[in-house]
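User: Quick sanity check before I run a bigger batch. Here is a single chain. Can you write out its predicted 3D structure?
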Amino acid sequence: MHAPDDSLASFAAVLAGELPGQWSSQYHPDREDNDHDELAVDVWDMDQVADAMAEYSLDHCAVLTRRVDGTRLFVMDRKGHDDGFLIAAMAPKDLPIEAFRDIREPDGIAVDADPFHAAKHVRLRLLPRYAQALAQVRDNASRLAAALADEQRVVMTWSGEDLVVAKPDRDDIARALTEYGFTFDTSRNVFVLSDGDSARVAASVRAAGHRLSELGVGVLLSRPTGRAALDITPAQRPAPPTPAPHRTR
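Assistant: Done. Predicted structure follows.
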């Protein structure tokens, strides 16, 4: 067990006070029920900090957190050296792993035991690299979200007297369509809702749309010029129509 006045804890506390903005420092001492592994997995580094964690056991560390946006910095001893510390940025937890693909890590830095000198290097070297990498990751995340939104959408289109939906990739979407009156046309590879009573069609579309929204899927109803729009505004959730016979794929 490291003493409460451990040099790493003191260094991190002073460093937090020297960085721009409001930062807090939390020391994680060596203890049997430590959370070091949970912290280490977020270290955004593939250089000297990652090498040090792979070569040496992590017996204690500190995490600095910027109050305004939750940016975190990881501080550990510089193993294999008489003194000094390693500081690395920590990846945010609120972004999908796929968004980090092909983005260069804002690798950490080695500093001496002077927290005032270290703060200058963090401000001029580490934080700018972190900001640049984070902006790229957030841009990737936005693109992924947009692509996902496009994929998770069912388009219902009029074809003659039928309302058709292209065969979805997801079985749960196919089941939702079938449950609310659509039948699968194997010759056209589409789900079809026959245009009979417009009120019944609107009820089926409302019910299917409600179920699809529960599955995280949007619905777009494409209406050709000259065809009256269906009244699919739900006053209340309609009871499902009689299901069509189930057809295997």
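The mean pLDDT is 83.

User: Great, the batch can go ahead then.
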